[in-house]
Design a protein that fits this description.
This protein is an alpha+beta fold and 158 residues long. The chain has four helices and eight strands. The termini are far apart. The protein binds zinc ion.
Amino acid sequence: MANRRHSARRVKKLRTYNVREAAKATGATPGTVRQWAKNGLEAVEGVYPTIYRGVDIIAFLKRRDEGRKQPCGSGRMYCLRCKAPKTPAFGEAEFWADGIKLGTLKGLCPDCAGIMNRRSSVAKLNAAAGDLKVSMRCADSRLSGTPEPNSNPHSKRG
Ligand SMILES: [Zn+2]
């Protein structure tokens, strides 16, 4: 049920819908429609039983779909402290690989200076990082075959 796609295609702007009609028109269940109401779908004021304007249902589903497609957008990360997606400070991020395929983009929140993380696959790194300047890091020293964290080539010769 969670994966079922709800569509506003059959909702008519100028009609009003009660909960059951709204559910039928969008392919959702009445319970889901009531959940939408809690999440910001506006009902027509002062009317009982509750009815919704088609135009409000369409706007609500559109907002929700847009929010889902790209939770942060490329080049942005979610700051848990600010509870908002942000472009990291200085437009810079680090990518810490924790395997061949997966890793975490890390950046500094420009507002609270907290560390923001964004999981990404190596394949989708470019899309996730967008215009950010990304430094590649290796979090798992096993991959480099040595436990020595200092891999600076300019350090003194052994
Ligand atoms: Zn923040």
